[in-house]
């Protein structure tokens, strides 16, 4: 992540441009890792920085602090922030608690928990986050995922019939969120749909959440829901954004696409309805349930954010990823059937409203 120029430079800019928020202040770095953000806080003029890191990376952070002669400013504490015992309250909390689809790895919970050390009126960097969701149409990624399970349709594998495991294998592949770069286009952010999260006020961010989807769309095939997120650093002097949008420069978070079990065909005049629900699990991640339906058809998908499918280098264009268009080409082939559906472009998206 240190090699992610957009992420690293944005954090540094947010702190240095808001020098007044850090000058002679006490700062808490949650999940400090190598201590990079702690160094930025020191560069911005912090009097004291407590870098809390629960893993053995704390030893690396200490080595960097010592090697850069900042032991008088940065103190590394090897513990979870929930177990930390700071000698004083802090003026600013900094952290990089973000995972794919914003919430994966569940670091946001630790970040919010750290507010118990924050002075009244203190700052949090980042300050708020926004998760964006919209439906997409992409026959290629849908077929590619289905074809991964074709091996389990083998009836003669050294005398063994593997087909009893085909359904389970297909479900496993479809449950993997596709993490990849989706190209930008003017059609995307014109219709962005969002769920906002204030990190300064939320008590249990995304422990369990449910959102509904409803819109009128042009005819076409929908294969799932795409997602990205934005963050805002609200300093006294400047507000600095960090975006993982297809429009923004690429980050190591890329964008995420969650697949339905079966594609949903939208007919002329149809209203598209659906939902997205997320629930924490014991693997420091989330189980995601998506569902889409029209007047004649419905489909759903169960996604495990802990097991992503990294499709790096397989560039997907937004016209396939986000609009639902009328001239869409979809081919679904197995041993018994083929289906062709015309594919095209349209700028209509789903209107997403949070419940």
CATH architecture of the largest domain: Distorted Sandwich
State the major sheet: 7 strands, mixed
Helical percentage: 10-25%
Straight-line N-to-C gap: 33 Å
What can you tell me about this protein's structure?
This protein is an alpha/beta fold and 355 residues long. The protein has two domains: 5-126, 3-Layer(aba) Sandwich (Rossmann fold), CATH 3.40.50; 130-354, Hnrnp arginine n-methyltransferase1 (Distorted Sandwich), CATH 2.70.160.11. The protein is 19% helix and 35% strand. The chain has helices spanning 5-17, 19-22, 36-43, 57-67, 107-113, 139-148, 166-174, 318-321; strands spanning 26-30, 48-52, 74-77, 90-95, 118-125, 128-136, 178-180, 194-198, 208-216, 220-234, 239-243, 255-266, 271-280, 286-293, 298-304, 309-310, 328-331, 340-343, 351-354. Strands 6, 7, 8, 10, 11, 12 and 16 form a seven-stranded mixed sheet that branches. Strands 3-2-1-4-5 form a five-stranded parallel sheet. The two termini are 33 Å apart. Its EC number is 2.1.1.319.
